[in-house]
Amino acid sequence: MAVELSIDQGLAHLHLNRPKALNALSFGILQDLNNTLAQIEQAIEQQHVRGLVITGAGEKSFCAGADIPELLGRTLVQQHEGARLGQEVFNRISALRIPSVAVIHGYAFGGGLELALSCTFRIATARAKMGLPEIKLGLIPGYGGTQRLPRLIGEGRALDIILSGRTVEATEAERIGLVTRLVDEGNPYALGTEFLAPYLKHGLLALEMARQAISRGVQTTLEQGLKIERDLSTLIFQTADANEGMTAFVEKRPAVFKDE
Predict the structure, then answer these.
(1) Fewer C-beta within 10 Å: the chain N or C terminus?
(2) pLDDT by residue (tens digit) across 165-191?
(3) Which domain holds residue 219?
(4) Catalytic annotation present for 81
């Protein structure tokens, strides 16, 4: 299968397995991703999963983007539905209650970078190459790139990358905040697992609310963002995990969070 899911010790591993096509995203694969995310959401609710690692098969590519030949000859309605599907899938990743990381070990172009942008974090090896090259085909990004990239790295840098269609090397990607961290070469899943480990020690509710405060706040005014923070920080005090965390601090022992 081109989309593989495994769950082990609280981590979900979503693996794009189409190396001969550089893990390109056909519409069929996007639908498979959508179905797989439904499984991940169910596992989260059953408290079987607390983090997600996304990887691509092969040595060359995380995900090289859309399946370009598939885009030819489509009607206006079909193109609109295709964009809607891609955005729906990536919005679903972004909205997951758990932290996620895309491990970029080669190419991440077009839809592949948009997939990575929908994750909480992105880590990359030194040979990773990223970009939104749609402009070179007379197109623009359609799966969220024009919206998520400027929110992440700023409007000016996003304009440069999108309007030029240029390739961003790994070192620049780290410098401008496109990727969270550069990592050594290795097994992509192991790299993602190691990266997420420090975050997963904390309670899921606090992680979720902190992410909500940030993601909702940056899209509004400072005054409105402070209200969002105030409301969520008040709400978190009502959880069993908050009581456990404060009690453990006073008793000078490690907290044992139960995501409650």
Answers:
(1) N
(2) 999 999 999 999 999 999 999 999 999
(3) 204-250
(4) no
Active-site entry in 4, 45, 59, 114: 114
The per-residue pLDDT for range 13-72, each reduced to its tens digit, is 999 999 999 999 999 999 999 999 999 999 999 888 999 999 999 989 999 988 888 888
- Is 64 inside any structural domain? yes
Predicted pLDDT at 71:
85
d(CA 102, CA 249) in angstroms, rounded, equals: 33
146 assigned to some structural domain: yes
| 155 carries an active-site annotation | no
Going through the chain in order, the beta strands assigned E by DSSP cover 3-8, 11-16, 51-56, 61-63, 100-104, 107-109, 121-124, 129-131, 168-169, 181-182
Distances in whole angstroms, Cα of residue 8 to Cα of each of 4, 87, 187, 251: 13, 28, 16, 32
Provide the β-strand partners of residue 129.
Answer: 107, 169
Domain holding 218: CATH number? 1.10.12.10
SS3 category, 66: strand
Q: Which of 4, 70, 134, 185 is catalytic?
A: 134
